[in-house]
Every structure is written in C-alpha cells, then in structure tokens.
Amino acid sequence: MLSKIVNGTSYFLAITLLLITNNALAWGQNGHRIIGQIAENHLTEQTRLALTPLLENQSLPQISTWADEMRSDPSEFWQKKSSRWHYINAPSNSNHFTHDHSHTLLNKENVKNILDGMYFAINTLKDDKSSLEAKRFSLRFLVHLVGDSHQPFHAGRKEDRGGNKIKVTFFGQNTNLHSLWDTKLIENENLSFTEFAQFIDSNNAEIISEYLASSPEQWLTESHNFASELYKLKSDEIGYSYIYQNTPIIKMRLQQAGIRLAGLLNNLFDNTAKPLEKALKMPANIN
C-alpha cells in the first residue's frame, strides 16, 4: 500500500511540475507549433531535403518547443545560461536593435540575448565546418527563437521582466501580462495548432513579400514597439474588449513568424529560393 501511495505521489508531483513548466513556456506550446506549421507550409523542396538529417524524423512544429523543454535539463548551460537566449532588453535611448555583423558568432557561450542567439544559429547552420550535432542544436533553437522574437514582451522592459511582474486577471483567473500573451489569448481561441495555422496562414504574394523584406533586428523592433503600447493597460481585468482589440495582433505576429521562419530556412538551405518570395532578406554581409 505504501509503495502505491509513494508511486501515486511521485506521479502527481511529476504532472504538477509538467504543468508548471508548460505554463512558463514562451508563446506556449501551441503558439510555437502554429509558427512551425506555417513555416513548413512555405518551405521549398530543396530546403525540406536539406532539413531531413537535422530534423531526425521530426517536424518543425515538433522541434519548436525543444528550447523551452530543455530548460528542465540540470546541466549548467540550460540552468544558468539558456534563459538569456529567449529575450532582449530594449536599449535605454532607442527602440532599435542592432547586431555587430563584423564578427561571426560561432561560440554559444558568447550569446547574450535572443538576437545573438538567432545569429549564432544562423552562422552555425551556414558553416560547413559545423558538426551535425551543432547544426541540430542550432536548428532547434532557431525555430524557437524566431517565434520568441515575434512575441512583444520578449523585447519588453527589464524592470518588469517583459511583463512577468505585471499582474492581471483573465476572466477572474490570476496571471501576468507576459503569460497572457504567451498562452492565454491563444488558448482562448480553442483551436489545435494545426487548425490555428490553417486559419491564419497566407499564400498572398504581396503579404509574404512584405513580411520577408525584414531582418531579425526589425522583428525585435516591431515587438518592442507593440510592447510599448501594450504596457498601457487601462485595467488589470482582462475580458472580451481586450481580446477583441488584441487577438488580431496575436494572429498577425504568429503569421509573420511562420512565414519569416520559412523564408530564413529557405535562405539558408536553398540557393535558388527567390528573395522576398520564398526566402528572407538578410544583411548582405551574412549571405
């Protein structure tokens, strides 16, 4: 009987920890999977072929949550260093983010923020000398970080930890501003990630071209500008009016992230991909 109680308690604790971990994920699992699914819809065949050995029989939606899930790993990198990969603090005198492209970032120990993280992953995937293991690591992180870069509060304010310290209620449930945008507003649609992706994806060439005429620095600048407005809460009680006003922003950011992720991967793995249509416009010195 005692063993059954112990086993039952262990099971309960495991489930509880899993729920706590899931509630802390950026964009939530559904958000990242939506982005991964949209990206898959826009990959070229050459890119799909190049990704095959890196994906290890998985899909972009499947690997999109890996960088969050691995934060339960007890190693020093995941416990003490990986968290800074997921966000960036806005510079005090500007709303524009910049990255020094004069030095190729190939050492993950030098990553200080999400922008560094994306370029580390890009550089590693482009480098013929990178090991297969390093490229798999970088692909998994890149898929996740492109998603995070489009969540407004991943480029928010340092003092409130990107909205994590701003308490709100969502239909009477206690939460915070960051979690509201990570998870609550997406879950409120009551859609699976495949349904959500299908509903918001686009094949409009003009929209795709507009989204792809951008760079990771611009994605974060967009997020910061959205966050600056979203900090201006009229009430800490979130209800139907807030959902009506802000769900279109959520859908646009998920759509942009998915299309831009596909463009970036096509840019990396398919040299025939057409810029601004099937590939992402990137700074000239990293092409």
Automatic annotation (TrEMBL):
InterPro entries hit by this protein: PLipase_C/P1_nuclease_dom_sf (IPR008947), S1/P1nuclease (IPR003154)
Q: Which UniProt keywords apply?
A: Disulfide bond, Endonuclease, Glycoprotein, Hydrolase, Metal-binding, Nuclease
Q: What SUPFAM superfamilies does the annotation carry? A: Phospholipase C/P1 nuclease
Q: Which CDD domains match?
A: S1-P1_nuclease (cd11010)
Q: What is this protein called?
A: S1/P1 nuclease
